[in-house]
Amino acid sequence: MINDLKKDGEQRMQKSLESLEQGFAKVRTGRAHPSMLNGVMVPYYGSDVPLNQVANIGVEDSRTLIVQPFERTMVSAIDKAIREGDLGLNPITADAIRVPLPALTEETRRNMQKLARSEAENAKVAIRNIRRDILGDIKDLLKEKEISEDDERRAGDEIQKLTDRFIAEIDKRLAAKEAELLQV
Questions:
Q1: Is Protein biosynthesis there in the keyword field (predicted)?
Q2: How far apart are CA 36 and CA 101, in angstroms?
Q3: How is the chain split into domains, by residue range?
């Protein structure tokens, strides 16, 4: 039973790390990357769909994304969706849509760094909540006399080690993201 709880907790913590990576993908660095447009939704035949389902997104050079719609009629809708996507991007429309990335100012870099730290802190909170849930489940097993106090203490230590490992991984990924943001 305890092993099942640990496996479940580890899987949930891994999902928190994956969510952190998705959050970090939204934090813009100086380089163009197709995942920057992942959150952009485009109206398509009456419903909003992700941009990557109506267009190919590529990198033209280190500071420019290129978006090639599957249908020419989608150009204006995609242009509008990128402008309204709260990313601070102004696409240039021709046959394909070019999205130049503005140079990051020092203030913008600091704001992006704050955003990255916020994403990392949210991931740490999620990991700690998972730990709390698992420890609560283990205490319930102890109350029902399905495990001994020694088993409970040992499991608590193992869950804490697991939590510490994931928190350290978050810190490592945050440090890498901050270093990437501060590169000029």
A1: yes
A2: 11
A3: 2-26+105-182, 34-100
Binned at pLDDT 50, 70 and 90, residue 30 comes out as low
Q: What's the per-residue H, E or C state across 135-179?
A: HHHHHHHHHCCCCCHHHHHHHHHHHHHHHHHHHHHHHHHHHHHHH
Q: Report which of residues 105 and 19 the model is more confident about.
A: 19
Half-sphere exposure of 167 (CA within 13 A, CB side): 15
Mean pLDDT (the chain) is: 88
pLDDT at 131: 95
Q: Is 67 strand, coil or helix?
A: strand
Predicted confidence at residue 184, as pLDDT, reads 59
Domain 34-100: which CATH number of 3.30.1360.40, 3.40.50.300, 3.40.1440.60, 3.50.50.60? 3.30.1360.40
Report how far residue 47's alpha carbon sits from residue 41's, in angstroms, rounded to the nearest whole number.
9
Q: Where are the beta strands (DSSP E) in the chain?
A: 41-44, 47-50, 55-61, 64-69, 92-93, 97-100
Six token digits for residue 136: 């609560």
- Residue 169: per-residue pLDDT: 96
**Helix, strand, or coil (residue 26):** helix
